[in-house]
Amino acid sequence: MASPKRSQSTVSRQRPGAAGVSAGVQWITVDPDMAGQRLDNFLMARLRGVPKGKIYRIVRKGEVRVNKGRVRPDTRLKAGDEVRIPPVVRPEKPVSAVPGDRVQAVMENAVVFENDDLLVVNKPSGIAVHGGSGLSFGLIEVLRAARPDARFLELVHRLDRDTSGLVMIARKRSALRFLQDELRHRQVRKHYHALVSGHWPASVTEVSEPLLRYEMPNGERRVKVDPEGKPSLTRYRVLDTWQGYSLVEASPVTGRTHQIRVHCACTGHPIAGDDKYMDAAGLRAFRSMGGNRLMLHARALEFRLPGAGEWLRLEAPYDEAFRQVLAKLAG
């Protein structure tokens, strides 16, 4: 009897009464871009929604095979390996909101650089980089909706929801690994522009206070300066000054949550419009002059292109709300 022809994905019908969708046996050939991945991570990417414990269990029981042999979860896959994934019942996905054509067009128009390996987008303020925490979708979901044929789109790094500016999105797994490794080794240079309260002293060129994440009584996550926190370093340069405010360039050497915002606040010069780390009086004063956003913008990125090794510098213009505040101060 002839053996059945293998395909990349064979979907079986759901059994009556099953609690979710059950995919049939899948045979996947590892391409060079997937090579080097651990088997458990490879499976989790393809069995989204399936509990991690269940994935480890089917590997231990020998239901997952690589080149017809039993393997461990930490096995590193090689290009050309054939991975057998057994039928697995997945939980039903709740129906989620689909980004509309307008928001898709906005995000496509915000692309400032694109090649085969990555996209770089000038993210608008007010849009999260990904959905969750009550948000139906974010930057990455909008891009995936706008590019349904894209095989791979993943965030390389993140920006706070209210921070605008440059974000890298990998189009290949190899590019994601390369750029995240560059970030870990501090080979990606990020430069932010921040409008801060008061006159920033030109002599303050860096802040190195340790930062600790903590949780508010309402569950909101914040960051504070604390000796028990992680070492953190931000370099500063004054770009311009006006009555009551300064425009500074902030270049984070480390990449802690809210690093620039907390380092600015701990010097006595919080970022204008920061409703987490600016005092109420300062926030009211900024709002009274028409300010309606966090005045923090990821202005420039300097990094090596995956594969080529060529250095690239990209800059993103301010949005209209940021420009209007600066124009009013320059007045």
Notes on the structure:
The chain has helices at 39-46, 52-60, 101-109, 139-146, 173-184, 259-266, 280-288, 320-330; strands at 20-23, 26-29, 65-66, 82-85, 88-91, 111-114, 118-123, 154-155, 164-170, 189-197, 206-207, 211-215, 221-225, 234-242, 245-252, 296-304, 311-315. The protein is an alpha+beta fold and 331 residues long. The chain has 3 domains: 20-91, RNA-binding S4 domain (Structural Genomics Hypothetical 15.5 Kd Protein In mrcA-pckA Intergenic Region, Chain A, Roll); 94-185, Pseudouridine synthase; 187-331, Pseudouridine synthase, CATH 3.30.2350. α3 (101-109) packs across α4 (139-146). The chain is elongated, with a radius of gyration of 24 Å. Mean pLDDT is 88; it is low at 1-19.
User: Could you tell me the mean pLDDT?
Assistant: 88
Distance between the termini: 84 Å
Indicate the radius of gyration in whole angstroms. Answer: 24 Å
User: Strand tally, please?
Assistant: 17
CATH topology group of the largest domain: Pseudouridine synthase
Number of domains: 3
Largest sheet: 10 strands, mixed
User: Stretches where pLDDT falls below 50 for ≥5 residues?
Assistant: 1-19
β-strand amount: 25-35%
Structural class: alpha+beta
